[in-house]
Design a protein that fits this description.
By secondary structure, this protein is of the alpha/beta class. It folds into 2 domains: 2-90, no CATH class; 105-291, Nucleotidyltransferase, domain 5, CATH 3.30.420. It is built from 10 helices and 11 strands. A 5-stranded mixed sheet has the order 5-4-3-6-7. The chain has a two-stranded parallel sheet with strand order 1-2. The longest helix is centred in the middle third of the chain and has 14 residues, at 159-172. It is elongated, with a radius of gyration of 23 Å.
């Protein structure tokens, strides 16, 4: 039996389904996987390293051992990926934090409590839209202080009321740019908010565009380039956000099973604007906004 990506399946699948199937003929199993923290796959690996256990054997190889992968590709991944993701995905390291994406969350949760905009400061907003199952979330960042100043999170309200709340928050903080996720429900709301004279533009989430968006936020929090508010919903989403490798070999970032990621996406969109120099975004004309 060959179990591929073993670290990404539930242990019960092995213990309750696969392991019993080997008993009738005394079969063997091979587990292949990149690590995902120190879960049951890690414990299997440790059995193979135990000199007193003759029934298990373990091997580990870094990506660099594969001669078909160019060294410059590995070097580029080391340069652009968060350190622990590179260690886990390219060096086969078993890390205690598993597939979680964000680190130093509480270290970055030190944004001062501000109740009104500071004159001449630049404020930006990120929005993730939802209606019933998820939450619509708006995050405002002071781009000069690199500090989150406000978040509004709500669900189960009409689109008209949602747009009213978004408009009120944007006007309170005098935001000069808003970036909203473009999806089936985001598109008509973005158009309506633009007609209401809000400086809004859209972000299309794809397999190519999402990793840089999330990795930019990962770096900002790890290095405390961005201070965030200690909001329980936000901290909970950041702490449970995970990644996995797709069958095509791409890194996929997503909420853990049963969790939300609306706060994460709104924060990442706001940070994308906050980290963009002022000269690289603005109103081109009355019908469009561009982001360099």
């Amino acid at each position: 039996m060959v179990v591929d990506e073993a670290a990404f399946i539930d242990e019960e699948i092995w213990t309750a389904c696969l392991r019993p199937a080997l008993s009738d003929r005394g079969g063997k199993a091979i587990f292949l996987s990149t690590p995902r923290g120190r879960n049951w796959f890690y414990h299997c690996f440790e059995r193979g390293n135990d000199p007193l256990n003759n029934e298990w054997q373990s091997w580990t190889f870094p990506t660099a051992a594969n001669t078909k992968i160019p060294a410059e590709e590995i070097a580029e991944s080391r340069r652009t990926l968060p350190e622990r993701i590179f260690r886990q995905e390219y060096e086969a390291a078993f890390l205690e934090d598993g597939g979680e994406v964000f680190r130093n969350i509480y270290g970055a949760a030190i944004a001062p409590h501000v109740i009104a905009p500071i004159p001449k400061h630049r404020y930006v907003m990120g929005i993730d839209f939802a209606l019933y199952t998820d939450f619509t979330v708006c995050v405002v960042i002071d781009a000069d202080e690199k500090a989150m100043v406000a978040m509004d999170r709500f669900t189960g309200t009409t689109w008209a009321l949602q747009r009213e709340r978004i408009g009120n928050l944007a006007r309170k903080w005098n935001v000069e740019a808003i970036l909203a996720e473009l999806n089936s429900i985001g598109s008509p709301n973005i158009e309506a908010l633009w007609r209401d004279r809000l400086p809004i533009s859209s972000f299309t989430t794809t397999a190519a565009s999402k990793p840089p968006l999330i990795e930019g936020l990962v770096s900002a929090l790890e290095n405390v380039d961005l201070m965030i508010l200690p909001d329980p919903a936000l901290l909970g989403e950041l702490g449970s956000y995970v990644y996995r490798n797709s069958r095509a070999g791409h890194t996929v970032y997503e909420a853990a099973s049963g969790r939300h990621d609306d706060c994460v996406i709104a924060l990442a969109l706001a940070w994308k604007l906050a980290a963009t120099p002022k000269l690289l975004f603005g109103v081109v004309d009355e019908d469009s906004i561009w982001i360099g």
